[in-house]
Specification:
The chain is mainly alpha-helical. It is built from 7 helices and 4 strands; from the N terminus they run αββααααβααβ. Among the domains are: 29 residues; 101 residues, Cytochrome Bc1 Complex, Chain D, domain 2. Helices cover 55% and strands 7% of the residues.
Length: 193
């Protein structure tokens, strides 16, 4: 009796595993992959997706080759600018003032601030102790670099290096402020002491 039950179980199992395909006497059976193989396959697909996004990049993720190149170029420019700044900082003050005066004339600052920094209808007087955007040299550097677009002054950080901006600020602070031209514009801003 036990043999009949075993034979029936074997026949049922064969019918479940059989796909009803038989070619040249070979039956196709349903043999699914083990669960660990399926999970390993899915983990591999997930990992490859993450890897592709991280290392090949998607637009603007800053991980693609173009972004890496741009960041390395920016780092090199910053390094060169810092080297130039340290070199410019070692210049004696008269040399910095002379270089700043040259930049003042070449970059067209005279169009808004006048030939002697006296100011005109567009720009403020740079020869008095009244300042609109701060009195300290760092604030003058910031104003030159960032500009004041709302008042018509363009930012010069793209056209001048850090050392040139510093030279221009030294020229303004050390040479123009003490100059007192005859036709100076009326004071604007806060008096600096």
């Amino acid at each position: 009796m036990d043999e009949n039950i075993t034979d029936k179980n074997n026949e049922n199992n064969e019918k479940e595993d059989n796909h009803e395909h038989e070619y040249d006497g070979i039956k196709e059976l349903n043999n699914p992959s083990p669960m660990w193989v399926i999970l390993l396959f899915l983990v591999t697909i997930g990992f490859s997706g993450i890897y592709a996004v991280k290392y090949f990049g998607y637009p603007n993720n800053r991980m693609d080759q173009v972004s890496e190149y741009k960041s390395s170029v920016e780092a090199q420019k910053l390094k060169m600018s810092m080297a130039a700044d340290s070199k410019a900082g070692s210049l004696p003050e008269p040399a910095m003032i002379a270089a700043g005066e040259k930049i003042f004339k070449e970059k067209g600052c005279i169009a808004c601030h006048g030939a002697k920094g006296e100011g005109n209808a567009i720009g403020p007087n740079l020869c008095d102790n009244y300042w609109i955007n701060g009195c300290k040299q760092e604030e003058i550097i910031q104003t030159i670099a960032e500009g004041r677009p709302e008042k018509g002054m363009t930012p010069y950080k793209a056209t001048l290096s850090g050392s040139q901006i510093k030279q221009l600020a030294v020229f303004i602070k050390k040479s123009l402020v003490v100059s007192k031209p005859v036709n100076g514009k009326a004071p604007q801003g806060v008096e600096c002491k």
